[in-house]
Amino acid sequence: MKYFFLSYIFVGAIIVSAFGFRGSKSELPPIEVFPDMDHQAKVKYQASSEFFADGRGARLPVKGTVPMGFEIPSKPAVDGAKPARVAFTSGLDYYNTGKIGDFYGDGLPSEITGDPTVFNDAFLKRGEQRFNIHCAICHGASGNGKGVTSKYGILTAFNFQQAGNLDPANAAAYRADGAIFDVITNGKGLMGSYGGNITLRDRWAIVAYIRSLQLAAKESGVTLPLQ
Questions:
Q1: Are residues 98 and 105 in contact, defined by beta-carbon separation less than 8 angstroms?
Q2: Quick one: which of 12, 40, 200, 201 has the most CB atoms within 10 Å?
Q3: HSE-CB of 165 using CA atoms within 13 angstroms
Q4: In this model, does residue 224 exceed pLDDT 50?
């Protein structure tokens, strides 16, 4: 019986030492079981740093790099190039959301198709590149939903090559361009949001490339490129 009481007292002492008495205060730092990245090895804005000779924490960008989200102009400013626009979602129009009112739109927005310096072969090549970087791992190189992750139990990636996917009348398989854009932006199901990783123009480039994969499969009878 004495061992029971000793164990009881021991457990009570552990609880009190870990959590303290209700309402008690301490100058010691709290015990963090899950720190949730509260303490990161980084220099905050306007803070000094002894690591650099000048003592400044804020540094100029590395030479030759481009800030994330900055769109490089297609031509120099002296030749009439417009200032680079915000490359991430910044409005409620079709170009920014993929929606027209409460409904998904279809077709590429005029901000893409109306600019010959944007809507060209390089635009589709860009879509292919971005798709292979961000999407092919789950959706497959041909968009058939059988990417690398399908070999490890993730079998819910959308199959853009299923029958009727290019036919708007087939509601079960068809996804409007705006709907695809919205999922890239906000995620759906197991797919997380890529709105903070992929710029607006690149999202639309991916949509255009997905359509090219579907058209190639429809015309040739196979899902290209082959897995």
A1: yes
A2: 200
A3: 22
A4: no
- The reported pLDDT for the residue numbered 154 is 85
Model confidence, pTM:
0.68
Residue 218: phi and psi, rounded to 5, are: -65, -40
Residues 111 and 119: their CA atoms lie apart, in Å, by 9
Structure tokens at 26: 């301490």
Residue whose tokens read 């036919």: 167
| Domains annotated on the chain, with CATH | 91-220 (1.10.760.10)
**Rounded distance, CA 157 to CA 94, Å?**
25
For tokens 């992929």, the residue is 198
**Orientation of helix 200-220 relative to helix 177-186, angle to 10°:** 130
Mean local confidence (pLDDT), 30-49: 81
What gap in Å lies between CA 160 and CA 166, rounded to an integer? 9
Using DSSP's 3-state secondary structure scheme, residue 102 falls into coil
